[in-house]
Amino acid sequence: QHRYGTISWSGDISASWDTLKKQIPAGLNYCVTGEPYWTLDVGAFFVKRDKKLWFWDGLYEKGCDDLGYRELYVRFLELGAFLPVFRSHGTDTPREIWNFGKPGEIFYDAMVRFIRLRYCFLPYIYSLAAGVSLRNGTMMRMLPFDFVPT
């Protein structure tokens, strides 16, 4: 996978706070294997629930019209801004920023703030990507990667 620059993600996850909580250790554990590029579906892939399909298990039937989902989406986006690959992806509800409010509203403004922050990090991300290519590094690292006990 190193040769071809492939990207892995946590799979088609469902929208819940518990799922969000599990994403950081999942990504770090994946990157420990030496694979440098990992991400998640910002906002989760499945937002709503389909009782006929066991895996389609989101908790927000109103999608982005649900204030609870708006907050969860913003938290996913905040995490995603610090991942090697930043993407909003999924099914069953829109994910464009204008579906979460208008300028001046809390969810919209929080999303704008973290999207802009992501762009501020591009030189750092570019440097980490060079480290992946030139030194077999990884972009997400557990603390023991950089702080070896003495």
Question: What report would you give on this structure?
Answer:
By secondary structure, the protein is mainly alpha-helical. Helix content is 42%, strand content 3%. The chain has 5 helices and 2 strands; from the N terminus they run E-H-E-H-H-H-H. The protein has helices spanning 17-32, 67-80, 106-120, 122-135, 143-146, and strands at residues 8-9, 38-39. Strands 1-2 form a two-stranded parallel ribbon. Helix 1 (17-32) links the parallel strand 1 and strand 2 (38-39). Helix 2 (67-80) runs parallel beside helix 3 (106-120). The longest helix has 16 residues, at 17-32. The mean pLDDT is 92.
Question: In brief, what are we looking at here?
Answer:
With 150 residues, the protein is mainly α. It has five helices and two strands, in the order βαβαααα.
Topology record:
Elements: E1 8-9, H1 17-32, E2 38-39, H2 67-80, H3 106-120, H4 122-135, H5 143-146
Parallel strand pairs: 1-2
Helix pairs in contact: 2-3
What is the CATH homologous superfamily assignment? Glycosidases
Strand order of the largest sheet: 1-2
Helix share, percent: 40-55%
CATH fold category name: TIM Barrel
Order of helices and strands: EHEHHHH
Question: Low-confidence stretches at least 5 residues in length (pLDDT < 50)?
Answer: none
